[in-house]
Design a protein that fits this description.
The chain is of the alpha+beta class and 354 residues long. It is built from 9 helices and 14 strands.
Length: 354
């Protein structure tokens, strides 16, 4: 028998969000945030210069400049913890060989008074039996499409069909499972804790995110006893907790924004520096006979970012222009000496090193 204190589960989840571990839950990753921020600025500026994309360009810039990419995604707002019952749990996980792997669980956002956890536990066991042994009865054949394709192709929710759904929104969910965040359930089953949005009407949009079982564990009893109400783990008032959460969020946004601004300013600093570093190398071959013959000498040059990235290790590329043409000056300079300089134009490539 599994008994759940729904009010306690929600309180413990919200308390956990204010812990150092929980504060990271639902946060966009720093790399993704920076990419989105820079991408939105580039796309916004580009669209502003088009005729039909001005409005969308300003919207893109507003989205970036209001620091939306760095804000906590709305995952935690209105989220509801659910108990998920294991259906397909890789044997490598249960044996301890691996800690993470693809699997399938059964869950529902319905209130436990309408849909007892024991029913979900038994239903998960039935679906697991259909998966391992195949359908043996007409009713089991109804469940078979849920587990027929067990190749993991990303997170996916599937509605449980009638009569097993009993008019409720019960669904299976294929996802990556972390066995270290689970607990043993009745009859050899495995229980997981997930968080999701109960107001999602389309199963294709259902998205669950696993959280440690310890977050909600004290509000779930597997021995038939009734979970009692516990005091909040956080003695601070709701106002104090919200202020602290806002402070953490603000500091995090400032750090990520600083990284993004640094990336934006990097070319401003890097290009002049590379130009200064390369000036001596360019001067050495500015009037080289081959250079004079091919492009008439070097009148101007600039550091080529993409050329250097594609040229290989220890190679720097400068775009050079002369009165008779243009090309690339490629300087291979290993740490142990033996520098090589080559000129590449549309007509060919020549070594300039004596």
């Amino acid at each position: 028998m599994i008994n759940i204190n729904r009010k306690q589960i929600q309180q413990d989840f919200e308390d956990w969000l204010d812990t150092p571990e929980g504060a990271q839950f639902g946060q966009p990753g720093p790399v993704l945030s920076t990419i989105l921020f820079l991408g939105a600025i580039v796309v916004g500026v580009f669209l502003i210069f088009t005729i039909i994309g001005v409005v969308h360009g300003f919207k893109s810039l507003k989205w970036a400049l209001t620091l939306t990419p760095f804000r906590n995604h709305s995952l935690c707002e209105g989220a509801k913890p659910v108990i998920a019952h294991g259906i397909i749990v890789n044997s490598a996980l249960t044996s301890g060989e691996e800690t993470e792997g693809p699997g399938m669980v059964l869950a529902s956002f319905e209130d436990e008074t309408d849909l007892p956890p024991l029913y979900l536990h038994k239903l998960a066991g039935k679906i697991a039996k259909v998966y391992s042994d195949g359908p043996e009865t007409p009713n089991e054949k109804i469940l078979y499409p849920l587990v027929e394709d067990d190749d993991y192709k990303g997170d996916k929710a599937q509605p449980v069909p009638e009569p097993y759904a009993k008019g409720r929104r019960i669904f299976t969910y294929s996802t990556m499972l972390d066995i270290t965040k689970s607990i043993a359930g009745p009859s050899g089953s495995v229980l997981f804790a997930f968080v999701g949005k109960p107001d999602t009407s389309d199963y294709k949009e259902v998205s669950l995110h696993q959280i440690p079982w310890t977050v909600i564990g004290r509000a779930v009893k597997r021995d038939g006893t009734i979970p009692k109400d516990y005091p909040s783990r956080d003695p601070r008032s709701p106002v104090e907790r919200k202020a602290q959460r806002n402070k953490v969020e603000r500091n995090r946004m400032i750090k990520l924004l600083s990284v993004s601004v640094g990336i934006l300013l990097l070319p401003v600093v890097l290009l002049p520096a590379m130009r200064m570093i390369g000036s001596s190398d360019v001067d050495e071959v500015r009037s080289h006979p081959i250079v004079m013959e091919q492009i008439g000498g070097i009148e101007s040059y600039s550091f080529s970012v993409f050329g250097s990235l594609n040229a290989g290790k220890n190679t720097t590329v400068y775009s050079v222009e002369g009165p008779n043409g243009e090309g690339d000056l490629m300087i291979w300079d290993p740490l142990l000496g033996g520098k090589t300089v080559r000129l590449r134009t549309k007509d060919g490539e020549w070594e300039l090193t004596d």
